[in-house]
Design brief:
homodimer, 124 residues, Arc Repressor Mutant, subunit A, 3-stranded antiparallel beta sheet, 3 strands, 12% strand, elongated, disordered N terminus, WH_DNA-bd_sf (chains A, B)
C-alpha cells in the first residue's frame, strides 16, 4: 500500500490557489523535499499515453470527461485505468463516480502550479 | 546510440519562440507524435535530482551556471553529468565549454513551451 500512495498531492489553499510547494524554478534552489514533490507531478505527465488521456480530459468541455469518452487511446481498459489512477495520485485529476461511470476532471490549481514553476520570466 | 538519443528536442523558431509542438493541453486531443515529444520533456524533470540541478541553473544569475557551481546536490560527479546530459538531450538546457568548465544555460523557449502547455486558462 505504501508503495502505491507514496506521493502526496501538494497542499493547496483552494481551487484557485497555487500550491505553496511550487515556487518558480528561477526563485532559488529547490529543497530536496520540494524537488521530490514536484518531480512526482512531472512524472505523472512523462508517459505519452498518460499525457494523451490528460489532454483528453483537459480539452473536454468543462474540463471534465467520462472515462467512456476518453478511453480510445489504443491501449487496454485496464491500462487506461492504471494511467488515470497515476494522474489522480499525482493530484492532476480528480474523479467522481456518477451512476455507472467515473468522471475525471482536471485539478486546475495543481496544473496552474506546475505551469507557474516553469514560468521563468523575470523582471530584469 | 539510438537508445541514448531517441528523443529529439522540439523544433523551435528562435530563442523566444514557443515550440510549435506544444499546444496548451486544453486545445484539443494530442496527436500520438506530439504526446511522445511532450512526454519526453516532462520526463526530463521527473527526477528530483535532475529537477534540483535544473533549478540551480535556472536560478543562477543570468540563467547560466558553471557545472562547478551546481554539482553540490549530494550525488557523485558522474551522476551529475548523467542528469545534465538528460536535460540537454530533452532540450531544456544548453551547454558550452569555456576553458576548463562547461557552462549550462536554460533554454527559455523550450521551458516556456512546457509552461504554455500547462496553461489551462480559457476565455470563458
Amino acid at each position: 500500500m505504501s508503495k502505491q500512495s507514496a506521493v502526496e498531492p501538494p497542499v493547496l489553499g483552494g481551487d484557485d490557489a497555487v500550491a505553496p510547494c511550487c515556487p518558480p524554478l528561477t526563485a532559488g534552489e529547490l529543497s530536496a523535499q520540494d524537488a521530490e514533490r514536484m518531480a512526482a507531478m512531472f512524472k505523472a505527465l512523462s508517459d505519452p499515453v498518460r499525457l494523451r488521456l490528460f489532454s483528453k480530459v483537459a480539452s473536454h468541455p468543462g474540463g471534465e470527461a467520462c472515462v467512456c469518452d476518453i478511453a480510445d487511446v489504443g491501449v487496454s481498459q485496464p491500462t487506461v485505468s492504471h494511467h488515470l489512477k497515476k494522474l489522480r495520485e499525482a493530484g492532476l485529476l480528480t474523479s467522481e463516480r456518477r451512476g455507472t461511470w467515473v468522471y475525471y476532471a482536471v485539478a486546475p490549481a495543481v496544473v496552474a502550479a506546475m505551469s507557474a514553476m516553469l514560468d521563468l520570466r523575470t523582471t530584469d
